[in-house]
Amino acid sequence: MLVESITFALVGLVTGLVALLARPSYFRTARTLTVGTALAAALLGGVVTHFCLEGRYPAGSIVAAAVASAVLTATLARPDLATGLAPAHRHHPHRGGAHRAPRHHRPA
Prior knowledge:
By secondary structure, the protein is an all-alpha fold. Helices cover 56% and strands 0% of the residues. It has three helices and no strands. Helix 1 packs parallel to helix 3 and helix 2 (31-52) packs antiparallel against helix 3.
């Protein structure tokens, strides 16, 4: 179990670093949060799978650790905030905190 846990940790670290290197603009949060999430997800996913499979299939546990790490790391990605990819906002910006410009009434 010790060797598998080290392998799960390495899988998590690799997943987090690859995500940061492949798409750095998608991860606006702290780099440690991205790598830490990948690491924790790989450890948790690998250990849970190890106990579910009763330790019979270590390769299956490693694959599950990689999948869990990739899925939870992907939840941190924000492609809508990536540089140059953000769509234009459909509403006009607020003017001075007011939602509308004041209307002038015509005298009767």
